[in-house]
Design a protein that fits this description.
- 42% of the residues lie in helices and 22% in strands.
- 30% of the residues are buried.
- The longest helix has 54 residues.
- A hairpin with a 2-residue loop joins strand 6 and strand 7.
- It is an alpha+beta fold and 473 residues long.
- It has 3 domains: 111 residues; 122 residues, Glutaredoxin (3-Layer(aba) Sandwich); 164 residues, no CATH class.
- It is globular.
- The protein is built from 14 helices and 19 strands.
- The chain has a 5-stranded antiparallel β-sheet, with helices on both faces. A 5-stranded mixed β-sheet has the order 8-10-9-11-12.
Length: 473
């Protein structure tokens, strides 16, 4: 399991526990409404009034790779504080090597939860309230206050400082501050007076308009970033936050119904404790920890198994619906007879394919009447696209699988078609002109598509009559 995002925050105000739980439940209802939850997105909730630990764990299949994305929110009440911990993780579902340095910026709805918790706790870091907003230093006092925060020995979070004097646009902004809520303070020095007062109190010139400076806590060396955007900066700070997360050792929830049965056992244990040696007690604790960890691993594996089984069930049900549709087509000779009708229907129902506007237009203009055959091939291509997006096979062998599963498939076009008639095969995709070379022959019709290897999207680019190549000269 790889942690890809994480932050933690604590407050001495334990009365905020219910408000924090309510915030987590609002996020859960927003992301996974109860009426739309399935076994393919399991949600595990640990919640009891008398339990000091509250936890929500959500698991979602990541279509881009052979893994599941987990989101875990934990709230722990101790003697002195209320502790909140939020983590995103990548959990392999197959024996595949995944990138170890994967970092996730929190997606908007998760970031909204982070901001809500940070603003609710109002925790101070070296006297400065941890906030999802930018600290503005625009005068002498502001510059000195920022320098004092940078020098504070008890500071826990890093400070991101950007001097914006004379800049047309700041690199860090309000969105940066929200993405780093609970992870770092973000500050703007907006005047020469503030910049000079910061340097005067700090004793060294560490900030400048030509760079963004990160002042790490505990005397660590400052770090400078010169990028034109905040991407690398945010990723490094999230990585630092992940590295600082505590190892959570969660005791199993107590079974209150058995409390009266456990009391005699506890009494008996206390009577014999005098005879136990320290080494025996240490051994018991060690075995108990191992059992807890083993149980957690078994539970996670069982959850992943349930999720994958549910996904297979959904695929089987979808395939059954498609078969029923085909049987209905045979009875009604006019159903999806036209290629244009088949493409309109496919665009609505084959969710693993992307239909370019040119594909829809070319199908309407073709006036071909072998729509059911075209649709049948698109169904097979849709199934392969689903497997590709799940990570069942690598992107570079997609054409091999197409050749095995699709009759009359060609992985490319002739050199003459590419050199002389490239415009016939070109579409604009995400601002770039690309060639839809792979194609399927369906009688008089051709289905040309483009494989975006960056996102693993399969784009249907053209459906219609044979395009120009050497055989049309």
């Amino acid at each position: 399991m790889i942690t890809t995002y994480g932050f933690s925050i604590a407050t001495p105000n334990k009365d905020l526990r219910q408000a924090a739980i309510d915030a987590v439940f609002r996020w859960l209802d927003d992301v996974h409404p109860h009426e739309k939850r399935t076994n393919s997105t399991p949600v595990t909730i640990r919640h009891d009034t008398h339990d000091p630990i509250f936890r929500v764990d959500v698991l979602e299949q990541d279509p881009r790779q052979a893994a599941a994305r987990g989101t875990t929110a934990t709230l722990m009440t101790s003697k002195n504080e209320l502790y909140f911990d939020l983590r995103r993780s990548l959990r392999p579902t197959k024996s595949a090597l995944l990138p170890r340095r994967t970092i996730d910026r929190p997606e908007p709805r998760l970031n909204k939860l982070v901001v809500e918790i940070v603003e609710l706790f109002k925790t101070r870091d070296a006297g400065q309230i941890i906030s999802p907003k930018i600290i503005i230093a625009n005068d002498k006092l502001g510059g000195q206050s920022l320098a004092a925060l940078a020098e504070a020995p008890g500071r826990r979070l890093p400070i991101v400082i950007e001097t914006i004097v004379g800049k047309p646009r700041a690199i860090t902004n309000a969105n940066t501050a929200m993405q780093l809520a609970g992870i770092a303070h973000v500050a703007h020095v907006s005047s020469h007076v503030a910049e000079e007062s910061f340097t005067g109190l700090h004793g060294a010139r560490i900030i400048s308009p030509d760079r963004i400076t990160v002042v790490w806590p505990r005397g660590a060396e400052t770090e400078n970033f010169f990028q034109l955007d905040d991407d690398e900066l945010v990723k490094q700070l999230i990585a630092a936050s992940i590295g600082s997360l505590a190892t959570l050792i969660l005791t199993p929830p107590k079974r209150r119904a058995l409390d009266h049965l456990q009391k005699p056992e506890m009494t008996a244990t206390s009577q014999t404790s005098g005879t136990n040696t320290a080494s025996e007690l240490d051994e018991l604790r060690r075995v108990n920890r191992e059992l807890i960890e083993e149980n957690a691993g078994l539970k996670e594996n069982a959850t992943l198994t349930d999720m994958l089984s549910a996904r297979k069930t959904e695929e089987r049900d979808w395939a059954y619906d498609q078969l029923t549709t085909f049987l209905g087509m045979k009875e009604d000779k006019s159903y999806l007879n036209k290629v244009s009708d088949a493409i309109e229907y496919a665009a609505k129902n084959l969710t693993n394919l992307v239909f370019h506007t040119r594909a829809l237009e070319s199908a309407r203009n073709s006036e071909l009447i072998n729509g059911r055959r075209v649709y049948s091939n698109l169904v097979e291509l849709n199934n392969l696209a689903a497997r590709l997006q799940r990570g069942d096979f690598a992107p570079n062998v997609f054409n091999i699988y197409c050749n095995q599963q699709l009759s009359n498939f060609a992985a490319s076009i002739s050199d003459e078609a590419e050199n002389r008639y490239a415009q016939d095969y070109a579409i604009e995709w995400k601002g770039v002109n690309v060639l839809a070379k792979p194609h399927i022959r369906c009688g008089d019709a051709r289905i040309h598509f483009y494989h975006d290897t960056t996102t693993n999207e399969i784009v249907i680019a053209y459906v219609g009559r044979h395009l120009r190549d050497k055989s049309t000269n």
